[in-house]
Amino acid sequence: MHHKYVVRDGESVWTGSTNWTTDSWTLQENVVVVAESAPLAAEYTQNFEELWRARDVDRSGHEEPRTLDLGGHQARAWFTPGHGEELSHRIARAIGRARERIRIASPVITAGPVLGTLAQVAAEARVDLRGVVDRTQMEQVVYQWRTNGRSAWKIPILASVLEHADFRGKRSTLYSPETPHDFMHAKVTVADDWVFAGSFNLSRSGERNAENVLELQDAELAGRLAAFIDEVRERYEGMPAPDGGPTT
């Protein structure tokens, strides 16, 4: 259960990547979105009630995403795991259709549709593509890919993305209950004027968790979030491409 949202009085939604912890507010990069919209609040309320009644993550997130008007902008609320794979494909399509800029902040990037589309876009070099990840977590993921073999096919795809696009990586502290939780924790994708922001890592695990994402077409917000991602990127060194494939 990975949601981080609040619905207030059926009129306002507060969502994003921020856990309610001291480390989240003081050590991590995060994004919070606040929207005043009764129809959007109804979408989130429905998701909450589904979780509250069933008490089962695997049976949640099945409400159909529908197009809403949010202050004159197209919007959709996405919930997983019911629409997890569909959400990854939706974000991948937005990335593939971008013509000017793509900005990504995600602790890890492991979802197959997103990785594949990023590799194609990066190789074609026709769009201003930049991003930031958590380097420590990504290196752990690559190690797992190498050792389990089943996901080793992703290693050369990730390597191609990192070789052709400008991604930075934060060297966070390796996780333990006792250490500071100083991860690069923001989860937002900007593709031209489209924004996807919420609790969802661009990951296979994210597709299976209880997550939410607000999709919004808003040029002004997209510009602000792209600038935020660029600001975060400037703090960190380039993310190196992984070598090789599975261990033998």
Compact summary:
This protein has 248 residues and is α+β, with helices and mostly antiparallel strands.
Please outline the helices and strands.
Elements: E1 6-8, E2 12-16, H1 22-26, E3 32-36, H2 38-54, E4 68-70, E5 73-80, H3 84-97, E6 101-105, H4 112-124, E7 128-134, H5 135-148, H6 154-164, E8 166-170, E9 188-191, E10 194-198, H7 204-208, E11 211-217, H8 219-233
Parallel strand pairs: 6-7, 7-8
Antiparallel strand pairs: 1-2, 2-3, 4-5, 5-11, 6-9, 9-10, 10-11
Helix pairs in contact: 3-4, 4-6
Could you walk me through the main structural features you see in this protein, from its secondary elements to its overall organization?
With 248 residues, the chain is of the alpha+beta class. 38% of the residues lie in helices and 23% in strands. Helix 3 (84-97) runs parallel beside helix 4 (112-124). The termini are far apart.
CATH structural architecture: 2-Layer Sandwich
Over the alpha carbons, how many angstroms does the gyration radius reach? Answer: 17 Å
- CATH H-level superfamily: Endonuclease Chain A
What kind of sheet is the major sheet? 8 strands, mixed
Order of helices and strands, N to C?
EEHEHEEHEHEHHEEEHEH
> What strand order characterises the main sheet?
4-5-11-10-9-6-7-8
Structural class by sheet pairing and helices: alpha+beta
Report, as a whole number of angstroms, the end-to-end distance: 35 Å
